[in-house]
Amino acid sequence: MQGYLDHPNANAKTLRDGWLWTGDLGQLDENGYLTLHDRAKDMVISGVSNIYPREVEEALLTHPEVSEVWVVGAPDPERGEIVVAFVVASGATPPETAALDAACPALIARFKKPKRYVFVKDLPKNNYGKVLKTELRERLAAMAV
């Protein structure tokens, strides 16, 4: 990749020393296999803990009343950020938050559990079907006012 057309700031962040920095976070296991966890810019930093949204999303998707879920961080004066889950119900009514909370401990650590759930009819997506996290963050900011 030679760079982004007419975006020198994006080029400076992404292209460094001849390498393309994607912003993906992952780890190599003892056999050399790479496991991708999430994007660095999407990680929620709550207190001293790094929380990968994908891990929380996968836990919540095990609940039968959840069709789609997307997790973002919301500003919090005490913890820096809190985990907020935008949930699309699979049925006519959203699941109880207590039921969603109960689905989490078996799959993720307690501190990763969402502090807030926002039930939505659908998630905002671009033409390719990718969820627009910036729009979800904007919705959160508007709710806080």
TrEMBL record:
<comment type="similarity">
    <text>Belongs to the ATP-dependent AMP-binding enzyme family.</text>
</comment>
<dbReference type="InterPro" id="IPR025110">
    <property type="entry name" value="AMP-bd_C"/>
</dbReference>
<keyword id="KW-0443">Lipid metabolism</keyword>
<protein>
    <recommendedName>
        <fullName>AMP-binding enzyme C-terminal domain-containing protein</fullName>
    </recommendedName>
</protein>
<dbReference type="Pfam" id="PF13193">
    <property type="entry name" value="AMP-binding_C"/>
</dbReference>
<keyword id="KW-0436">Ligase</keyword>
<feature type="domain" description="AMP-binding enzyme C-terminal">
    <location>
        <begin position="55"/>
        <end position="130"/>
    </location>
</feature>
<dbReference type="InterPro" id="IPR045851">
    <property type="entry name" value="AMP-bd_C_sf"/>
</dbReference>
<dbReference type="GO" id="GO:0006631">
    <property type="term" value="P:fatty acid metabolic process"/>
</dbReference>
<dbReference type="GO" id="GO:0016874">
    <property type="term" value="F:ligase activity"/>
</dbReference>
<keyword id="KW-0276">Fatty acid metabolism</keyword>
<dbReference type="InterPro" id="IPR042099">
    <property type="entry name" value="ANL_N_sf"/>
</dbReference>
